[in-house]
Design brief:
globular, 2 domains, 3-phosphoshikimate 1-carboxyvinyltransferase activity, 4-stranded mixed β-sheet, binds shikimate-3-phosphate, alpha/beta, UDP-n-acetylglucosamine1-carboxyvinyl-transferase, Chain, 3-phosphoshikimate 1-carboxyvinyltransferase
């Protein structure tokens, strides 16, 4: 089991209805990309609403090591003076990405296409995660993997070519990280780099490429896929970025309000990008009372203020093709399903095995520790709902995984006995204000 150096056990217990109005921090995916594009642009990129979690701070440190000048002006407000595509400097030491899969994989795309030699490392969780999926296309583009741990794991060292070769690539799994790594590498290549995905994944990289002046075309491919074509070697021009609130973080207060009887909360300005909205669609199918109070646009993304009221949920089957649009939300959906009436089957969850932890195993174990009947059937997770009644009283092992920790703390707000997580330290990677924000709504998490 992976452990933090100083595990911090945290307990959540039922106290009463949640009420109030909250805004969750900036989107993690967009925040990583904001730092990376700031590095690759010419001029000064001004960022507001940046998520100041540990993961994004690792990416900021890497951007500095690669030649960007990064200023912190105040809460969420940052300025990045870029080095420009082709202008990266050879970093002096290794790049330590901590727990951050997105930061490390996207930066591998950047560095693997530049004539520098870069060593990537991370914590015990990152050291277990597969990087071959990124190294394979980078090798096709001319990168040389000088050193790697078994199966392509960090610590690993990549030497980029003098000039990267443009490729057409079909990622073997639906992954925005693979797509983004190839596109970011394609910035340094002449000609067109193409990614063809069988299932559309989050499109933040494509949108930001356009926002910084690159030429990108996106067309439909098959029933659910996309073909993304990037014209290489653009001069990216710095552009302002307003980071909208993270729907993957909003998922925690949202599910908490659905399962704690009598709750009625507002969650402000949550990004509703359709490629990130699978959880909302699923919860609505389950009968959740979620209404849109107002809708607007922030930084090129639609955002909505959501009103969430507790109420009876019923079990559903979640189709596998929905997975890319809610990939990080399955742990907390499994918590919602535990309180529903009837069975919920979440299909096609193989990718959950290679997240910050093996989330399929961690969710199953945590649910069982709370007295929920559930099982893994191939790549599906099947949860028998307790119709509002879940015993709790157990300890969920978090395996250095922030979303496992937050999911089981949300669960403990509605179980008969409190739920404990063995370590809440990793919550700081994506949602440092999680505990005060939840307690401000009336939760008891300590
Ligand atoms: C992310 C993509 C997803 C997601 C991760 C963030 C991104 O990973 O799980 O938290 O910002 O591109 P995969 O692309 O590996 O599915």
């Amino acid at each position: 089991m992976a452990h933090a150096e100083h595990p911090v056990p945290v307990t959540a217990r039922a106290k009463g209805p949640l009420c109030g109005r909250v805004r969750v921090p900036g989107d993690k995916s967009i925040s990583h990309r904001a730092m990376i594009f700031g590095l690759l642009a010419i001029g000064e990129t001004r960022i507001t609403g940046l998520l100041e979690g540990e993961d994004v701070m690792r990416t900021a440190a890497a951007a500095r090591a690669l030649g960007a000048i990064v200023h912190h002006d105040g809460p969420g407000a940052w300025r990045v003076q870029g080095a420009g595509v082709g202008g990266l400097k050879q970093p002096e030491g290794l790049l330590d990405f901590g727990n951050a899969g997105t930061g490390s994989r996207l930066m591998m795309g950047v560095c693997g296409a530049h004539p520098i030699t870069t060593t990537f490392d991370g914590d015990a969780s990152l050291r277990k995660r597969p990087m071959r999926r990124i190294l394979d296309p980078l090798e096709l583009m001319g990168a040389v993997v000088v050193e790697q741990r078994e199966g392509g794991r960090v610590p690993l060292t990549i030497r980029g070519p003098k000039e990267a070769v443009p490729i057409t690539y079909r990622p073997p799994v639906a992954s925005a990280q693979i797509k983004s790594a190839v596109l970011l590498a394609g910035l340094a290549a002449p000609g067109e780099t193409t990614v063809i995905e069988a299932e559309a994944t989050r499109d933040h990289t494509e949108k930001m490429l356009r926002h910084f002046g690159a030429e990108v075309t996106v067309t439909r491919e098959g029933a659910h896929g996309r073909r993304v074509v990037l014209k290489g070697q653009p001069e990216l021009q710095a552009a302002p970025i307003a980071v909208p609130a993270d729907p993957s973080s909003a998922a925690f207060p949202l599910v908490a309000a659905l399962i704690v009887p009598g709750s009625d909360i507002l969650i402000e300005s949550v990004m509703t990008n359709p490629l990130r909205s699978g959880l909302l669609a699923t919860l609505r199918e389950m009968g959740a009372d979620i209404t849109v109070e107002s809708e607007t646009n922030e930084g090129g993304e639609s955002v909505a203020t959501l009103r969430v009221r507790a109420g009876g949920l019923k079990g559903v089957t979640v189709p596998p093709e929905r997975a890319p649009s809610m990939i990080d939300e399955y742990p907390v959906l499994a918590v919602a399903a535990s309180f529903a009436s009837g069975t919920t089957r979440m299909r096609g969850l193989q990718e959950l095995r290679v997240k910050e932890s093996d989330r399929l195993a961690a969710v199953e174990a945590g649910l069982k520790a709370a007295g929920v009947t559930c099982h893994i059937d191939g790549d599906d997770l099947v949860v028998e709902g307790g119709n509002g009644n879940v015993a709790g009283g157990g300890v969920a092992a978090t395996h250095l995984d922030h979303r496992i920790a937050m999911s089981f703390l949300v669960m403990g707000l509605a179980t008969q006995k409190p739920m404990q997580v063995d370590d809440g330290a990793m919550i700081a990677t994506s949602f440092p204000s999680f505990i005060p924000l939840m307690n401000g709504l009336g939760a008891e998490i300590e």
